[in-house]
Design brief:
Oligomer: single chain
Structural class: alpha/beta
Radius of gyration: 21 Å
Largest sheet: 8 strands, mixed
Distance between the termini: 27 Å
Order of helices and strands: EEEHEEHEHHHHHEHEHEEHHHEE
Bound molecules: adenosine-5'-triphosphate, magnesium ion
Number of strands: 12
Strand content: 15-25%
Length: 326
């Protein structure tokens, strides 16, 4: 049984202009100790899917219109809010892009870290403070015993992100969802924070969902990748195979748009055009207006996820024609 099993999830937002279909039948699984990277352009539904799993979706305007979210065998969408709240934080936790807005600016980081133990574990103030220092050590914050009473703004961006990781780890959850955890940091700090997260994930054997648009980050830490486009998964693959032999033209487009150090001066092959409006997703394959391989069938028939190999699937009718097809 997978740790997390999302099945055919649908999420819609009711807006003034109509119904935005943000998630349209997403399925993925995460095992204990496994890292799933979720990749895709802005607006493809990566965060909304994660928010639905975490139970923090804005409802309204959002609405889960179909599917199941099974976590440790339990159907989360059927849990009463009280039980759901207990899952959140204790059994699954989330790390956001922007630590400064996720942390409370008027409380010391030690207080906020310790609060996890006071609220969930009934620890005393003194015990909680000691735990906070311990957690700060776990995420390699130098001088933890001195810095435990400092406020979030007194830490650098990278250190704040470490504090967010510490907060997520506090109750030793089984699953962590990290939504663009390093996007706001500069490149060297990004690598350090990502490495820390990957180390802790291995040590605690947690499941990790890593949401990113950075293909470079993914290669080193993920086991498998789900590529999203317009609220659907268009390709699933183990990480190496996806790089070696993408089985969907959208994935290939993403890979081709990475600047490569070994090909200096080469023009970036960004994917032409823009993702569709979620208020009017094109019929057939949602990617067809931008796809160099598109033909008539793509404009009328929505592709299913074809199985293209072990642990691999592609939502392209013509995946066999991809230059490096599996
Ligand atoms: N609170 C909301 N109200 C209305 N629509 C929303 C809301 N949150 C998300 N959406 C819609 O859902 C779509 C998917 O959003 P989501 O945040 O999942 O994208 P994403 O893939 O995480 O993109 P990014 O890479 O920019 O974070 C958005 O384009 C938006 O139209
Ligand atoms: Mg997002």
């Amino acid at each position: 049984m997978p740790l997390l099993d999302v099945r055919d999830l649908h999420v819609a937002f009711h807006t003034r202009d109509g119904v935005a279909r943000a998630v349209n039948g997403v399925s993925y699984t995460v095992d204990e100790g496994e890292t799933l990277a979720v990749l895709g352009e802005s607006g493809s539904g990566k965060s909304v899917t994660a928010q639905a799993v975490m139970g923090i979706l804005d409802m309204p305007p959002g609405r889960i219109t179909g599917g199941e979210i099974r976590f440790e065998g339990e159907d989360l969408l059927r849990l009463p809010e009280e039980a759901r709240r207990k899952v959140r934080g204790a059994r699954m936790a989330m790390i956001f892009q922007d630590a400064l807005s996720a942390l409370n600016p008027v409380l010391s980081v030690g207080y906020q870290l310790g609060e996890m133990y006071r609220v969930h574990r009934g620890a005393s103030r003194k015990e909680a403070r000691a735990k906070a220092v311990e957690l700060m050590d776990r995420v390699h914050i130098p001088g933890s015993a001195k810095r435990v009473d400092d406020y979030p703004h007194q830490f650098s961006g990278g250190m704040r992100q470490r504090i967010m990781i510490a907060m997520a780890l506090a109750l030793e959850p089984r699953l962590i969802i990290a939504d663009e955890p390093t996007t706001a940091l500069d490149v060297t700090v990004q690598a350090q924070v990502m490495e820390l997260l990957a180390d802790l994930q291995r040590e605690y054997r947690m499941g990790l969902i890593l949401i990113t648009h950075d293909l470079g980050v993914v290669a080193d830490v993920a086991d498998k990748i789900a590529v999203m486009y317009a609220g659907r998964i268009v390709e699933n693959a183990p990480v190496r195979e996806l790089y070696r032999a993408p089985a969907h033209p959208y994935t290939k487009g993403l890979l081709d748009s990475i600047p490569r150090v070994d090909q200096k001066g080469q023009q970036l092959n960004a994917i032409k055009g823009l993702p569709p409006s979620l208020l009017a997703i094109p019929p057939g394959c949602a990617f067809n207006p931008r796809c160099p391989m598109a033909r008539e069938r793509c404009r009328v028939e929505e592709p299913p996820l074809y199985e293209v190999g072990p642990g691999r699937s592609s939502a392209c009718h013509f995946w066999k024609e991809m230059p490096d097809a599996p």
